[in-house]
Structure formats: structure tokens, C-alpha cells
Amino acid sequence: MKNFLTLISFLLFLSGCTHIPSYNFSVPDIVSSKQKVNADLKNITISYGEPDAVSVVSMRLDELSKEQLSQEVIPAWAVALYNALKRSELFDKSSEKKVNLSVSIQEINVPSFGIDFTTYVLANYKLNDIATNTTLYNDTVKSEETVPFNYSFAGYKRANESINRAVRKNISTFISNIQNHKPF
Predict the structure, then answer these.
(1) Which distant-in-sequence residues (6+ apart) come within 8 Å of 67 by Cβ?
(2) What is the enclosing helix (H) or strand (E) of 155?
(3) Taking Cα atoms as reference points, which of 154, 125, 151, 128 lies closest to residue 140?
(4) N or C terminus: which one in the chain shows less Cβ crowding within 10 Å?
(5) Are 164 and 25 within 8 A, CB to CB?
(6) What pTM was computed for the model?
(7) If 0-12 CB within 10 Å is exposed, 13-18 middle and 19+ buried, where does residue 99 land?
């Protein structure tokens, strides 16, 4: 019994030394676009919920608070989106048309527990012409990714990775949609 309690205490000690991994939304499989969009992307703004509404992102994961969302998820999303757009070379910097991209994260839905973690992400992407203040492109992208139990025994790692994968897929889908749509 004493050995069992010692083992349990040691395991709890070791688990206390682990940290929750940071978010990594970097999209690895972005290739250079064959055709450029006739616009120069000047600014990317990312928010959660509708910009003028009080709505909050739908979350069912206690560890991901509103503060974490604004301090970790949004900056990580912005960096990943910026890098993916830069690698895609989708926008034409020499274009006279200047646009802003605004992303509204409407939902990140992660189960609070489970064997396999499936995360649903819903984000709205809008391209606005700076000169005319008109919306040139408006698309709501849904993505879903599942991380199986064999990825990690620790549930928080599976939850974190499912968020990573779902956001990566969301960004990748947006870039694919705009490449195929050519709104200009």
C-alpha cells in the first residue's frame, strides 16, 4: 500500500510538471498560387464573435477562457493566416486596389472530455475594398478535425491538437476558396 501511494504521488508530481502545449496553427501545405488576386492586402484583423455584437465564441472546454482566446488563440491564428497568405503569394502587391481582411471567429467547439476529440471551427472571412468600403468577398468557413485517443493519453493534449488541426484546416480552406473564387 505504501509503495502504491508513493507511485501515485510520483505520477501526480510528474503530471504537474507538464505544461499545456501552445497553439500552432501554421499551415504546412500552402503552395504558391498560380494566379494572383488583383488586390493588395494591407491589413488583417481577427476577432471573435461578430465585431459589433456581444456574442462570445462557443466553448465547452473549461481550460480555454475568454482571456486565453484573446491572448493566445487570436494572435496564433493571425500569425498562421499571415504566413499562409504570404507563402501562397495570392495577393498582388503592385495592384492599385487595396483591401483589408477581417476574420470573425464565430465558433470553436471542443468537447470537454472524450476518447476522440473532435473540434468544430466556424469563421467568417471578409475582404473589404479600402477606397470604397465595399465588401468584395464574404465567406463563412466551417472545419472539423478529430484527434484519436492514440495521439496522446492526456486529454488536454488531444483537445489542444484538435483545435490546432481544425484551425489549420479552416485557414487552408479559406485560401483554397479564395483561389478558386477570384472575387475581383
Answers:
(1) none
(2) helix 155-181
(3) 125
(4) N
(5) yes
(6) 0.77
(7) buried
Buried/exposed 136-153: b ≥16 CB within 10 Å, e otherwise: ebeeebebebebeeeebe
Task: Give the position of cell 478529430.
Answer: 146
Count CB atoms within 10 A of the CB of residue 24: 15
Determine the residue type at 162.
Answer: S
Cell 465588401, residue located: 135
Name the CATH code of domain 31-181 (choices 3.40.350.10, 2.30.260.10, 3.40.50.10610, 2.120.10.30).
3.40.50.10610
Contact 69, 62 (CB under 8 A): no
Write the CA distances from 8 to 4, 5, 13, 65, 160, integer angstroms: 6, 5, 9, 30, 25
How far apart CA 42 and CA 133 sit, in angstroms, is 14
Q: Which pLDDT band, with edges at 50, 70 and 90, does 117 fall under? A: confident
